[in-house]
Amino acid sequence: MSTIKQNDINEDSPTAKTVQHTADAEGKPAASSPHPAPTNGAESSPVNPNTHEPAASVEFSPSPADERRIANKLAGVGVTGNIALSAFKLFAGIFGNSAAMVSDAVHSLSDVAATAIAFVGVRLSQRAADESHPYGHERFECLASMALGLILAATGAGIGFASVESIVTGAYKTAAAPGCLALSAAIVSIVVKEGMFWYTRHWARVMNSDAFMADAWHHRSDALSSIGALVGIGGAMLGWGVCDPLASAVICLIIFKVAYEVLRDAVNKVTDTPCAPTFELEVRDCILAQPGVVRIDNLRTRKFGSKVYVDAEIAVDGQLRLVDAHAIAEAAHDAVERTFPTVKHIMIHENPA
Questions:
Q1: What does the angle CA 91 – CA 93 – CA 98 come to, to the nearest 5 degrees?
Q2: Taking Cα atoms as reference points, which of 218, 230, 228, 128 lies closest to residue 182?
Q3: Is the four-CA dihedral 249, 252, 258, 261 of positive or negative sign?
Q4: Quick one: DSSP state of residue 293?
Q5: Quick one: which of 124, 140, 149, 191 has the fewest CB in 10 Å?
Q6: Is the CB of residue 107 less than 8 Å from the CB of residue 159?
């Protein structure tokens, strides 16, 4: 299996910078990372406003060239691994007499398409802004995540239909008991897919990529479905034939849950959903730390794919000259965009205090 080393990230890239996110799944800061008010130019540990789990603690923020290289390797690992695993599980399911393993093989095969979609979505989102998309292409990655969610849902529906049909018609009663080959395939699948989950998840967090994060959860759902297949195959080998289609039904429910979460996250990021309150608090602290900012009258955030737009109204001394008030706003603008790599742009308006 191809691997990506941390030094694949170019330390000499113009965009390389030290970044360490410390947020939990609900956007809460880690216990060791309260909300210090960063000073202008100071390092901080900003909260990742987009992903539904902690962002990676990485030494460098990858440049666009680094991200393309990582995406290529992730796609290669995902496609190669899933094709090999699907072929093995299909062989084991057919010759090991396991409907659950055949269903699991179909799920793994769908991961090939999922990885391809994630790759295309990431590459499209990395394009620079142009006349037709003046704000950038980041939301293409959300569209890829939606497609992945729909693929997951369709896969789950197919597996669920087959399992219910087997139970209702009693077809499982005449099916041959699964063999050790199918049982071994389930164990191998659990180990391989869980490894692919952690591998893809790590680099998705480094890239702050929603599409590859969805792909990682696709791998995890496959590992969970293999656990269900393992239980079903084991039960059928002990003489409880109904365990095999029941396992497929459980697999269906697991896949539906993952599909719902992927779709919900993608929809939130194309409908101007605000970031977590903790992230907004850190942005607020950063602005208030700038000299000349009296208070913040209003602050709003909205997700834009894997990036964030911020709008703020700050109060400054009303007796200042326009050029001096603008300098204060410009300093706050630069501090936020420097401190929070996920902020694509912040618009700041000055009000008289």
A1: 165
A2: 230
A3: negative
A4: -
A5: 191
A6: yes
pLDDT digits (tens, 9 = 90+) for 252-284: 888 888 888 888 888 888 887 888 899 999 999
- Phi first, then psi: give them for residue 318, nearest 5 degrees: -70, -15
Instruction: Dig out the tokens for 241 from the structure.
Output: 């034939």
Residue from 171, 155, 174 nearest 218 by CA: 155
Residue 241 is given by DSSP the state T
The label of the residue with tokens 């049909």 reads 165
In angstroms, the CA 12 to CA 281 distance is: 32
- Residue where the block lists tokens 């269903």: 103
Q: Average the pLDDT over 157-175 and give the result.
A: 79
Tokens 């197919």 locate to 158
Task: Residue 155: name the closest of 147, 143, 166, 165 by CA.
Answer: 147
* Residue 61 DSSP class: P
CA dihedral 140, 141, 143, 148 (to 10 degrees): 150
Write the pLDDT tens digit of every residue in 219-250.
887 787 778 778 777 877 787 877 777 877 88
- CA 113 to chain CA centroid, Å, is 17
pLDDT one-digit tens code per residue, 132-153: 888 778 788 788 888 888 888 8
| 138-to-92, 142, 342 alpha-carbon distances in Å | 41, 8, 11
Cα(69)–Cα(22) distance, rounded to whole angstroms? 25
Distance of alpha carbon 265 from alpha carbon 218, whole angstroms: 14
E-only strand ranges, 5-66: 19-20, 57-58
pTM of the complete model beyond 0.85: no
How far apart are alpha carbons 206 and 353 in whole angstroms?
Answer: 41
Residue length of the chain: 353
Q: Are 219 and 104 in contact (CB under 8 A)?
A: no
